[in-house]
Design a protein that fits this description.
Length: about 130
């Protein structure tokens, strides 16, 4: 099911459960602000998710509601993870699905980091 609008934060969502240690993840890096781990269904040789340590349902919610320190800390970890994974030389893509049109599945804000091959078109072909 996709996420639309601004649903209330559901603490039972899968990423909240990963943050609480209730289900495992393949951790890449973690600090006070965020956790990075490998996607369970990778779409590229490198496919990592980064999630903030707070209750924000989406990109819209995070950027409107999170304290500046949390936003800065989150994005610094995104950059540090890409560097740590050796993606800076050849490049990488950062993506966040927000809401129904984007097909957001997990209602805890997250970004995907893709790399390790030519990633092709930014958006699949379709009517503009
Ligand atoms: P999105 O469509 O942007 O909400 O992406 C959700 C992502 O979470 C998908 O790429 C899933 O493969 C990934 N995912 C779902 N459950 C897990 C899990 N337990 N561990 C790692 N990645 C997961």
């Amino acid at each position: 099911m996709s996420v639309s609008g601004k649903p209330p934060y559901d603490p039972a969502n899968i990423f909240a459960r990963i943050l609480r240690g209730e289900i495992p993840c393949k951790r890449v890096r973690e600090d006070d602000h965020a956790l990075a781990f490998h996607d369970i269904n990778p779409q590229a040789p490198v496919h990592v998710l980064v999630i903030p340590k707070g209750s924000w349902v989406s990109a819209a919610d995070f950027h409107a509601s999170a304290p500046a320190e949390a936003i800065a800390g989150f994005w610094r970890l995104v950059g540090a993870v890409a560097a740590e994974l050796g993606l800076e030389e050849r490049g990488y893509r950062i993506l966040s699905n927000m809401g129904e049109d984007a097909g957001q599945e997990v209602a805890h804000f997250h970004v995907h980091i893709f790399g390790g091959r030519r990633l092709g078109r930014m958006v699949p072909p379709g009517a503009a």
